Amino acid sequence: MFALQTLWKDFFRGNRSEDDWWLRLEKVYNKRNITVLRIEGIVKDWRVIQRSDRTTQKYTLKLTFILKQKNHMYIEEREYPFEFYEQAGEIKEHRQTQAYSQVTDDSPLSFHRTEESTRQRAYDRRKAVQYAERWWNDYNPAFKVFEVDCTNYISQCLLAGGGWMHGEPNREKGWWYSGDTWSFSWSVAHSMRWYLSGAMNSIVGTEVDDAEQLQLGDVICYDFEGDGRWDHTTIVVAKDENNMPLVNAHTDNSRHRYWSYEDSTAWTPNIAYKFYNIQVH
What we know:
Distance between the termini: 54 Å
CATH class of the largest domain: Alpha Beta
Mean pLDDT: 86
Number of helices: 6
Largest sheet: 10 strands, antiparallel
Number of strands: 10
């Protein structure tokens, strides 16, 4: 195994640019008047994949940021999957990749159908946030893990908060999960955005104008290119010193990340957002 110092020295030497997520993150912190007190990093889930023509090594870099904003201190956490391969004793193509699935043994959230007489009529924001915090960098074994897992994760958070499923077996209707199949609104960011806008029962999204109006347990949808195709979904789990949302997300697993995603390499100046106050009907 190569020393991490060597890996990261080579990575930064070849990848520093305006698109680098470290530079983007620094800009966001400066804009918010954030002081970074400490950054801690660990490597987890190191895997070696041996093929006939090359040996590929994959790992996840978990970063913990100790931050201060005015008189408030908090922790932000990120996970970034990386891979590289060796050729003639040299590291080649050291790059960030999509997250791969990890399944743990834990008490899964039940996804049984809820009878009309026992449906929860109020959204339990505390439970939704608790679920979001528990599973931000892990995967509930009661559910399938998707390569792009952001909306699947948000759906689970909303279910924990009291949302009830409906529409099965039509994948284009309602919001539901049934083990081997599910609605598009459950797992696809674009479909969830439109479901929240039009839902009349179960989880209902009321659009608000500004991120500052969101409460814990509310949802943000992202169209990075501004082309009408919605790409990403997050859940609000905290507020910063300026009353702005901090969010949790899957795919690039993140905890207490600033809501705007300006530090993401997917961000563009054309980005569009939808802010939804969540209720259960």
